[in-house]
Design goal:
405 residues, eleven-stranded antiparallel sheet, two-stranded antiparallel ribbon, elongated
């Protein structure tokens, strides 16, 4: 009975304390996922003019994830993304710190981009390397986008279903982002050769393609300008126009719900868009208003205002899917981790509980039988009973005689 009780208590303790300590993100992860797709270039990087037809090239992407250090509660993970397009290779590197139990990223100074501790990332509470163990359709999950240093809300696309390529059940989520790139990613784009600014002369053909004829407006208004106004126009046109870059992300992930493993990752669009920063032209607005009677000046003013509100022009983007062998490899690892988790969460504690219950019942039955046996063999306490024997002879009865005889 004591052993059975100990196993029952131990099963609860194991499930409550030992299983969470054992079921965690492993510290020996060193895996590479592979993706294939198409790269599309929409503008000329030098002139920013849209191409007549987007340039299409095959793209190969690899994503290497490796744990570089860890403790009982946290793991430091390196992610290296290599993109090969034609003769160009683009490498991005990020370092994350995750909670080994929740799989969420945490606030930690070791979380930075491109090997630069100053390029810190703010990813606390989001997922990137692995999703939550026990991912479900009603959960609320945030995906981290390192290119923007921002998070994106995940939206349920399809509940538990059998994956088309891998022998495992998955849940599909999607996310969409379109925001300014992080400073460290902007520096990365600059290192890749993308322009950070253009001159007014370079921008003129781009504006002309949108129906904004800067040269015609200057020619029409020039004779009317005062010296100070002419100097302002000359100074403004001499300044370079900064370029703003945005990261585009529209993709879908298939997650194995027990372990949170990313079985499949594919995207409809991922890339960068560009937009000229025309805020410097605001100093010319008083002139535009003053000479609005000139049709070309009015067209220039209206065109710049309209252009400033237009969505960024997509410069280049990728569409890709994870390769089948890569999905199968991730599935194999996920299934192995799921078996280990099931062993710790279910099989061991329930086995302990079942054996403990059997021992407790057997012990109780044995104890009850032993008690009854002792009751039958032990005499009761108190004085011995008195036994009265019947007489062998009838009792003598006195004979009475009449008086006087």
């Amino acid at each position: 009975m004591c052993l059975g009780s100990a196993l029952l208590v131990g099963s609860v303790a194991f499930r409550t304390f030992a299983a969470p300590a054992l079921v965690r993100f492993p510290l020996d992860v060193d895996e590479t996922a592979h993706y294939t797709g198409t790269a599309l270039t929409y503008v000329d990087p030098a002139t920013l003019l849209p191409l007549a037809q987007p340039k299409r090239e095959p793209v190969q992407i690899s994503r290497h994830v490796k744990v570089v250090s860890g403790t009982f509660s946290r793991a430091v993970i390196d992610e290296t993304v290599t993109v090969k397009t034609g003769g160009t290779t683009n490498v991005e590197s990020y370092q994350y710190v995750i909670d080994r139990r929740s799989m969420q990223m945490v606030s930690d100074p070791r979380q930075y981009a491109f090997g630069d501790p100053k390029a810190t990332m703010h990813a606390a509470g989001a997922y990137r390397v692995n999703f939550a163990m026990g991912t479900n359709v009603k959960g609320s999950y945030l995906a981290y986008i390192p290119e923007e240093d921002a998070v994106s809300q995940m939206h349920l696309v399809e509940g538990p279903h059998h994956h088309s390529d891998a022998p495992v059940a998955v849940i599909d989520f999607s996310s969409t982002r379109n925001g300014p790139v992080a400073p460290y990613y902007l520096a990365h784009l600059k290192a890749m050769g993308l322009p950070m600014q253009v001159s007014a002369a370079q921008l003129a053909p781009v504006l002309l393609a949108d129906g904004i004829d800067v040269n015609q407006a200057l020619a029409d208004v020039g004779p009317r300008l005062q010296p100070a106004e002419s100097a302002l126009v000359t100074k403004t046109l001499a300044q370079s126009v900064p370029l703003r870059y945005f990261f585009l992300s529209n993709g879908l992930v298939s997650i194995e719900p027990k372990t949170g493993a990313l079985i499949d990752v594919h995207t409809q669009q991922q890339g960068v868009a560009v937009q000229p920063d025309l805020s410097g032209a605001a100093v010319l607005q008083p002139l535009f208003a003053k000479y609005a009677s000139i049709p070309s000046v009015k067209a220039l003013s209206d065109g710049l205002a309209k252009l400033a509100k237009r969505a960024p022009q997509v410069a280049e983007s990728y569409t890709y899917t994870q390769t089948v062998p890569s999905s199968l490899a991730v599935t194999k690892v996920a299934q192995d981790q799921a078996r280990k988790a099931n062993l710790a969460n279910v099989r061991v504690p329930w086995t302990m509980a079942a054996v403990g219950l059997i021992l407790l019942v057997v012990g109780l039955i044995g104890w009850t039988r032993a008690r009854r046996a002792r009751a039958r063999t032990t005499a009761p306490d108190g004085p011995a009973p008195t036994i009265t024997l019947a007489p062998d002879v009838a009792p003598e009865v006195p004979v009475r005689t009449p008086e006087g005889v």
